[in-house]
Structure to design on (230 residues):
């Protein structure tokens, strides 16, 4: 099954990480994969554009089916391999409702994070303003406090939608992992820190951990300045 799948991905990309966690959870190891470099603009290569005209990663193909949006890939994998691996959509209406809510709120979380940590990468030098970055940081703080409150209400040891690991965790944890990778203080956000520590030891997360974080710890230390004052 996994032999019919191909994933083009980039390390450190939360959207790519979502798909890789989902593949691991559904026991779909052994898929074809190719790691591409954002720095070398390989996501704009003809190989990617032939499958994904937006020139973005992840790019995913299963047989003749092409899906390039990370949330769509995760939904597709759960739908097509429902009885395989981890059940990622709970049956109970309350837990399922909370799962969907947190999943789509996760897009806002990622957007607020990206506006801070990828600011210099995405905004040309002549268009950068300290006041804009300050506003972005304030918006991220508000967002972080919201998620801290969500986890506080659920209690210790909980996943994002309750007692079970669900698609909400698949798609939101990469943002949480990235925010701590960039130096967020677990003392300032203890519930998010607890959630991060719970999931970072999960086999699917460990198997898909961004390799450049492991290979270049000095680079990772430099990144940590981005969120030191958040």
């Amino acid at each position: 099954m996994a032999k019919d799948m191909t994933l083009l991905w980039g390390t450190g990309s939360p959207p790519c990480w979502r798909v890789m966690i989902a593949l691991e959870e559904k026991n779909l190891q052994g898929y074809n994969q190719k790691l591409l470099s954002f720095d070398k603009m390989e996501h704009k290569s003809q190989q990617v554009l032939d499958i994904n005209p937006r020139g973005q990663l992840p790019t995913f193909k299963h047989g003749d089916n092409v899906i390039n949006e990370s949330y769509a890939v995760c939904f597709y994998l759960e739908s097509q391999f429902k009885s395989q691996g981890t059940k990622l959509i709970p049956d109970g209406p309350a837990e399922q409702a909370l799962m969907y809510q947190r999943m789509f709120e996760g897009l806002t979380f990622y957007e607020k994070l990206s506006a801070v940590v990828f600011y210099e990468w995405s905004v040309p030098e002549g268009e950068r303003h300290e006041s804009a970055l300050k506003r972005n940081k304030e918006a991220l703080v508000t967002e972080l406090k919201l998620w801290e409150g969500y986890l506080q209400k659920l209690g210790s040891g909980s996943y994002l939608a309750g007692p079970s690991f669900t698609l909400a965790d698949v798609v939101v944890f990469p943002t949480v992992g990235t925010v701590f990778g960039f130096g967020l203080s677990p003392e300032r956000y203890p519930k998010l820190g607890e959630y991060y520590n719970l999931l970072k030891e999960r086999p699917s997360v460990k198997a898909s951990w961004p390799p450049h974080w492991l290979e270049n710890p000095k680079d990772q230390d430099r990144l940590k300045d981005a969120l030191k004052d958040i």
Q: What stands out?
A: The longest helix spans residues 93-117.
